[in-house]
Write a structure and sequence with these properties.
Distance between the termini of chain B: 38 Å
Helix content of chain B: under 10%
Structural class of chain B: mainly beta
Structural class of chain A: mainly beta
Strand content of chain A: over 45%
Oligomer: heterodimer
Mean pLDDT of chain B: 94
Number of strands of chain A: 11
Largest sheet of chain A: 7 strands, mixed
Order of helices and strands of chain B: EEEEEEEEEEE
Order of helices and strands of chain A: EEEEEEEEEEE
Largest interface: A-B, 27 and 26 residues
Mean pLDDT of chain A: 93
Helix content of chain A: under 10%
Distance between the termini of chain A: 37 Å
Strand content of chain B: over 45%
Shape of chain B: globular
Radius of gyration of chain B: 14 Å
Largest sheet of chain B: 6 strands, mixed
């Protein structure tokens, strides 16, 4: 069974640019969440999508946005990149987030803003 | 405001020793407490989890101890092995908008010397 797939694995962007990250959840999983991981702040929740609807949102500026498609694949977009956006962006999927039985994470996309 | 406080930040133990990682939370609305293990280059993976109506849960060499009145919980790794060397995250979850959203601690980097 394929796991959560995130593409690309590594990305280098220039300050001011925008970037789109992709996440393909485990087959059958309808919930996709995104997290930002940095050494200083740890894992911080960005947003969660369930059946194409954003159900929860973390405390990030509007430059961070996402969407989910009918096949449950999700994309995350960051506009007007800042140096502080350099981080590992993790996607996690769940078959039923209401059961609390944890998420399955992908290996992440390492974004470097220069 | 850090809702889940984790300590220590780093931990070094000898092979065969006991590794202990502690977490504390503030919000009594949290009702699910998972621990995640993360190896370099990988996303976090669910290791073990507990609900607050249970004081202890054991799975193999991994044990969660939970103290509801003190709002503290800890992970014990018995007979620690070099393969256990990883970063460990505690988390506390509560239902929001129909989904359980985990709030993570800052992580503990564990090194087990052979």
């Amino acid at each position: 069974k394929a796991g959560v797939t995130q593409t690309p694995r590594y990305l280098i962007k220039t300050r001011g640019q925008q970037v789109t990250l992709s996440c393909s959840p485990i087959s059958g999983h309808r919930s996709v969440s995104w997290y930002q991981q940095t050494p200083g702040q740890g894992l911080q929740f960005l947003f969660e999508y369930f059946s194409e609807t954003q159900r929860n949102k973390g405390n990030f500026p509007g430059r961070f946005s996402g969407r989910q498609f009918s096949n449950s694949r999700s994309e995350m977009n960051v506009s007007t990149l800042e140096l502080g956006d350099s981080a590992l962006y993790l996607c996690a999927s769940s078959t039923d987030p209401g059961t609390a039985y944890g998420y399955t994470f992908g290996s992440g996309t390492r974004l470097t803003v220069v | 405001q850090q809702q889940v406080k984790q300590s220590p930040q780093s931990l070094i133990v000898q092979k065969g020793g006991i590794s202990i990682i502690n977490c504390a939370y503030e919000n009594t609305a949290f009702d699910y407490f998972p621990w995640y293990q993360q190896f370099p280059g990988k996303g976090p993976a669910l290791l073990i989890a507990i609900r607050p109506d249970v004081s202890e849960k054991k799975e193999g060499r991994f044990t969660i101890s939970f103290n509801k009145s003190a709002k503290q919980f800890s992970l014990h790794i018995m007979d620690s092995q070099p393969g256990d060397s990883a970063t460990y995250f505690c988390a506390a979850s509560k239902k929001k908008g129909g989904s359980y959203i985990p709030t993570f601690g800052r992580g503990t980097s564990l090194i087990v010397h052979p």
